[in-house]
Amino acid sequence: MAIKCILFDADGVVIRNSEIFSTQYEKKYNLPSGEMLPFFEGEFQNCIIGKADLKEILQIWLPKWNWEKTTDEFLEFWFEMGNNPDEKMLEIVKKLRKKGIKCCIATNQEKYRTQFMRKNMKFGELFDFVFSSAEIAYKKPEKEFYEFILNYLNKKGIEAEETLFFDDSEKNINEAKKVGINGFFYKNFEEFEEVVKDFL
Asked: 96 and 194 share a domain?
């Protein structure tokens, strides 16, 4: 069956991996290693599924992290650190879309970075759709995350078996396969290119 849609994870696939933000921040602002972990493993998880507002939660944490500017400035600093799209990947996406293949982002993000990706990183223009956990209210690898996407695609005449999904988490890929999506564990650009070359 022909492929009609390709789903891309954002961080680690479309966006090149760099050192984790919290690690970079802790070094820059002389915080003990792991100081930010309770935030990212705790309250931040509710932001990812749209059940909490990141700006509100950060007001409690920023003073502990030696941040003396505004919350908005912190978010700008954070998001710009991850503004590192893989241009080779985006070039492939452009070619795929010209061939009539829908290309969508499928990512675990809170709402402010989702907006940043759409507008500042131009993902809203470069991709046909951005599926964000904050707007779906479920995150990868939860089954409901994939079911939401499939429901959307079905309305566009696209079935699960006509969909590819690239993610750098094997768990996310395995769960996607359970709902019928063709999942590929993303290791590097060269392997990805080999998989999609027949569609270009």
From this structure: yes
Instruction: Judge if pTM exceeds 0.90.
Output: yes
Classify 194 as helix, strand or coil.
Answer: helix
Burial of 84 by CB count in 10 Å (0-12 exposed, 13-18 middle, 19+ buried)? middle
pLDDT tens digit sequence for 65-110:
999 999 999 999 999 999 999 999 999 999 999 999 999 999 999 9
pLDDT of 56-77, one tens digit each? Answer: 999 999 999 999 999 999 999 9
Residues 6+ apart with CB under 8 A from 41: none
CATH label of the domain that carries residue 11: 3.40.50.1000
Rounded to 5 degrees, φ, ψ at 158 are -115, 125
Rounded to the nearest 5°, which phi and psi values hold at 139? -125, 160
Cα 104 from Cα 130, distance rounded (Å): 6
Instruction: Identify the residue whose tokens are 């990805």.
Output: 192
Provide the domain count of the chain.
Answer: 2
